[in-house]
Amino acid sequence: MAAEIHSRPQSSRPVLLSKVEGHQDAVSAALLIPKEDGVITASEDRTIRVWLKRDSGQYWPSIYHTMSSPCSAMAYHHDSRRIFVGQDNGAIMEFHVSEDFNKMNFVKTYPAHQNRVSAIIFCLTSEWVISTGHDKCVSWMCTRSGSMLGRHYFTSWASCLQYDYETRYAFVGDYSGQITLLKLEQNTCSIITTLKGHEGSITSLWWDPVQRLLFSGASDHSIIMWDIGGRKGRTLLLQGHHDKVQAICYIQLTRQLVSCSADGGIAVWNMDISREEAPQWLESDSCQKCEQPFFWNIKQMWDTKTLGLRQHHCRKCGQAVCGKCSTKRSSYPIMGFEFQVRVCDSCFESIKDEEGRPGIVTPVRTSLATFHEGKHNISHMSMDISRGLMVTCGSDRIVKIWDMTPVVGCSLATGFSSR
């Protein structure tokens, strides 16, 4: 059972059901097999394995296949039992797995990229395999012919991918911190828009086609929610992790967001409330509270015979302030700040006043997320939402299967148990 990151008491937490060990290098992807007691893993040790739970309660590899290059990404389509494995050399290999998950047959190789494959999505209706790679491009190939249909290049490594099957919109995150929305056609594509808000490389994306929300996680430790279908450009910022956010999953039924970070942090965010949008940071040559000049404002420094001050920003109002006018720290979960951040003195007082108002049932500083410790490096996470199950894996070569029903409220299917 996992312990907490935060010291405040929690009534529920994820339950560790099983640990799967055996890979000789980092596990780059792990996927739960729907309706089965099984997991598919791909690793930097050049193997892809299918693990089935035996009567003893232990997981044993029923399939063990060695590739020509380290495995960097994977997609699995359960209805057709097709597995697509991206490799460090840029190729994607397709396999077909038998109904009893004891045999896997090679289908074809796709020359998708010139460098490491970072993400793969398979679309059955169009028979496309869409992928991103460290050759700075997104490609889409025909699974019938194995031929390349189209490519689009970026200025940075393409790191993650999401796809809307109905509209053929692809969301591509890259190492520059930008997300590009593309409309894919049979042999060409067009740029719809670009989303900029992160201060670090995009590490994970999640698209919810029902509410038309895009969630992005980044190396700047933050998550942004982009309202694609509603008020375009509206963003919500979530900050609670202390390392780069490696994986995210939005549960539309319960309006909860599950996120995992490289330090093993697992967060469950309550998105079923009206949150406030974080303000844009304002620019100024002097403190917008005391009007003292910042250190680059040579003219005002000369005129007032004062030394310039360092510029900071209040996270609640966005104003440019000096250190003396922003001595306080406060959490403000309604705006996504789950730990204490810099606020100007007047905003700190307004938060205190808001909490002190008569009739306030829930204080404004009450957390709107729960934080848990996965106790291993997490580089990839996947959920089976219908069963409330989550699998995590990372550079420590361990795969962990979690019962998330205590924190997300989904129903757990029979078959998986902690005994």
Describe the 3D structure:
WD repeats lie at residues 20-51, 195-228, 238-279. This protein has 3 helices and 32 strands. With 419 residues, the chain is mainly β. It has 2 domains: 15-280 and 368-408, 7 Propeller (Methylamine Dehydrogenase, Chain H); 298-355, Herpes Virus-1, CATH 3.30.40. The strands form 9 sheets. Strands 1-32-31-30 form a 4-stranded antiparallel β-sheet, with no helix packed on it. Mean pLDDT is 89; it is low at 1-10 and 411-419.
What is the CATH class designation of the largest domain? Mainly Beta
Radius of gyration using CA atoms only: 24 Å
Overall pLDDT: 89
Structural class: mainly beta
The number of distinct helices, counting runs of at least 4 residues, comes to 3
CATH superfamily of the largest domain, called what?
YVTN repeat-like/Quinoprotein amine dehydrogenase
Strand content: over 45%
Major sheet: 4 strands, antiparallel
Question: Which strand order does the major sheet show?
Answer: 1-32-31-30
Morphology call? globular
CA-CA gap between termini: 12 Å
Low-confidence stretches: 1-10, 411-419
* Second CATH tier, the architecture of the largest domain: 7 Propeller
The helix content is under 10%
As for the CATH topology of the largest domain, it is: Methylamine Dehydrogenase, Chain H
Number of domains: 2
Please count the beta strands (DSSP E, at least 2 residues each).
32
